[in-house]
Design a protein that fits this description.
235 residues, signal, globular, 16 strands, 5-stranded antiparallel beta sheet, 4-stranded antiparallel beta sheet, mainly beta, 0% helix
Length: 235
Amino acid sequence: MKKLILAAVALGVSGAAFAVNQGLYTGSEGRRIVFSHHPDDGTVVYSLNISDSAGRPMTKNGILYQSRNTKKPIAGNDYTFGQTSPYYDDDAKSGCLISAKWEQGGALKLSAGNSCTKTEKTVYTGRYTFTDKIVFPEKFRGAWAANCRNSDPAEWLRIGKNSFTQFTDFTPARIISINQTDGMFVAAAVEISEGAGSCSFLMLRPEGRKLKVTGEHHGDRIDITVQKCSSKAGL
């Protein structure tokens, strides 16, 4: 059984005081990423800890922003931090990825995901804003799918879009529609920001189940069709 465990840790950076402010994103199933702000020099760092099912730890740390860095992020630029790690307990390989986009007004849009292949990726995202008290809201953002045969919103997982090559941080979303297919509940919590179109999402759950969700955008709503989950490798 494939299993991924992410845990949050405190993070220090050489040459900077320990962070007094932290932004924490917690995804479904306990996945966490910590963003720390060092107010003395404006450094913002992230810590993403990974362990496989055998408990072997791996850590990815990185600097998202540093005021004294001449190559500091500017509005409109994308910055990606990633590594490839065999943290599944079989032959599947997966990569840890954090992508940051600096925006006007001091906001940094972040997305983080784990990918088994180029076409299978679960994405977790949120918004991190520089304030005296760091604000990092994540709830009700992005596209969500419910666990198989479980309508409890606490069990929803966020899924990506655009063939898993990009992810857009939506405005705080409202639940637009809820469909039931073969005993499985799927909810759309997406605010469509521009145009119409069609996208397919493939969610790979840690236990190996796959859920394919096809969403067709119609201005301010999304219509959803779902293929039922399977415990096998394929749909």
